[in-house]
Amino acid sequence: MHRPPPGQTVKVSTQGEPFTAFVPRPLPPLPPIVWSAGLRRRFDDALVALGRLDAVSAMLPNAHLVLYSFVRKEAVLSSQIEGTQSSLSDLLLFEIDQQPGVPLDDAREVSRCVAAMAHGIERLRGGFPLSLRLLREMHGVLLDHPRGRGKSPGEFRRSQVWLGGTRPGNAVFVPPPADRLGECLDAFERFLHDEPEPTPPLVRAALAHVQFETIHPFLDGNGRIGRLLIVLELVADGLLHEPLLYPSLFFKAHRALYYELLNEVRVNGDWERWLDFFAEAVQASAAQAVQTAQALLALVAADRERLAALGRAAGSAWALLDALQRQPVSTATALGKAAGLTPATVNKTLVHLQRLGIVEELTARQRGRVFAYGRYVALLNAELETAAPPQARRKKGPR
For residue 269, which of 189, 211, 343 has the smallest C-alpha distance? Predict the structure, then answer.
């Protein structure tokens, strides 16, 4: 559906050059969303898929260990959308201070993305509301690295930003000027709190993501915070008990369409096409997360059965296997600390795990040896390597 643009353009001048910036109207959209039968089905399917994913955290054994890797997948994918080159393996190596060949600056940025999500979830569980203050705190965590410290971590911008182009005058899109930011963000926070009217949680997450990216309240990191906000909202609203969803997999696979639809809302007020895309992203991401979680847990269960044949050594082997689920690339020292085992026991047990083909050593040295739970890492990496190319089929909204 084509509406009037959901906002107004205002004339601004910077260093003597005039340009126009876009100031979005408060949510929810007016005129209201047109809920075709197809769009309703899309959201119904997404909610069902989220319910199945949430059951993973409630019903499957050791699902909390899967969470560690899933949060990192979302951070890697979201950061790759912004242009970082760090892979999941790079991040895992960076986190254990094993960095040869790892793009350090990129890995450090992804690591801060993980920390930002962890901070947000911890604050929500402590009773803190989803709010502008929480987003500022997460932004401060996200940009707490050398490349981010000059970009006002934890503070809303006080100057103009733009997307594409070399300056506002030739930009693809220019968000609100700094002096209009306060009113935009106040209305945005009220919408997060179901004002002026209640909005279904999944719909609110979809609308809020576009509004946040349109306001672009920070000098840097808006895309990553905006995508973390999606999962944060689903947890805050009880649709997910754990942040197991990684929607950036779908957004990265359909990156051109993702940006096109965000812009279509700003230009033509086409919320329906965006909502259709968003609901499919949630449904596909949730279904894939369930499939991956089940595959990981089935692999671990099969390996635990193989370790039972070790007899008295099985207990130590199971303890290391649990530690490897949380950190599938790790040092012998870190595994010992996580499992509560002595260095001698760890070394003996790792020999058993290598002999059975469960772990592989990535180094060939006496000290600081690094081990990987190879098939576990391969399952985690499979989606990252086979993301589908953008599809050109979605030129019209759902029927």
Answer: 211
Please check whether residues 280 and 363 belong to one and the same domain: no
Rounded (5°) CA angle 282-268-230: 25
CATH number at residue 369: 1.10.10.10
Asked if the structure places residue 375 within a domain, the reply is: yes
Task: Please state, in angstroms and rounded to a whole number, the distance separating the CA atoms of residues 266 and 169.
Answer: 18
pLDDT of residue 72: 87
Q: Identify the domain boundary among 267, 292, 317.
A: 292
Q: Torsion angle, CA of 274/206/246/104, rounded to 10 degrees?
A: 90
Phi, psi at residue 16, to the nearest 5°? 80, -5
Single out the residue in 241, 263, 292 at which a domain terminates.
292
Given this model, what pLDDT does residue 65 score?
A: 72
SS (H, E, C) 197-239: CCCCHHHHHHHHHHHHHHHCCCCCCHHHHHHHHHHHHHHHCCC
What value does the mean pLDDT of the chain take?
Answer: 89
Q: What pTM, to 2 d.p., does this model score? A: 0.90
For residue 99, give every residue at least 6 positions away whose Cβ sits within 8 Å of its Cβ, in sequence order, or none.
93, 107
Q: Give me the mean pLDDT over the 308-326 stretch.
A: 94
Per residue in 179-200, pLDDT (tens digit) is 999 999 999 999 999 999 999 9
Q: 329-331 and 360-361: which strand pairing?
A: unpaired
